[in-house]
Amino acid sequence: SQQGEEDPQALSIQEGENATMNCSYKTSINNLQWYRQNSGRGLVHLILIRSNEREKHSGRLRVTLDTSKKSSSLLITASRAADTASYFCATPQNQAGTALIFGKGTTLSVSS
Amino acid sequence: DVKVTQSSRYLVKRTGEKVFLECVQDMDHENMFWYRQDPGLGLRLIYFSYDVKMKEKGDIPEGYSVSREKKERFSLILESASTNQTSMYLCASSFHLNEKLFFGSGTQLSVL
Fold it and tell me: Where does A4-86 sit in CATH, by number?
């Protein structure tokens, strides 16, 4: 079962521009997480936002969460070529809080 | 730093072979997970374990089994490999069940 769905599937921007990715999910959650994956490698955790938080920052990353719309967004400001990667949102499988379920990801390409 | 180590980066096997994928973590995490990743399908959960000798099925457990005899090691077993099990396999661990995951680098398995 796919809990989260990212949008867009692919995004191409120039260095210095901002990149925004969205995630929608289906059931109530206690947290939502974003991960990054460089080509052919494992995923790296970026940020976790809890259901009682609306916005969270980490360096050039800004994550928002709207539980009424069951959606989240990840904003990367002043993108760099090194930000080129796939980005995934992840949510608990169910309200009992078991394993994380991942969306299909957004592939970001940043050209210099 | 937490380290999750997968025994092989690339693996080529024949159909019908029994295949073992090994994963070891060094942070005394209670929880360990196996996902597979396929183009267009994202990450899908195969099995997870929340304690030694404990396991739970994920979304796609058919054709797989797991073993967790020691806390640091979680093995994925393909009893009789088939071509549709050709995929990238990702192991992860976490301290809390639905919080930050630490991933290994992945094993690209080809079944011929």
Answer: 2.60.40.10
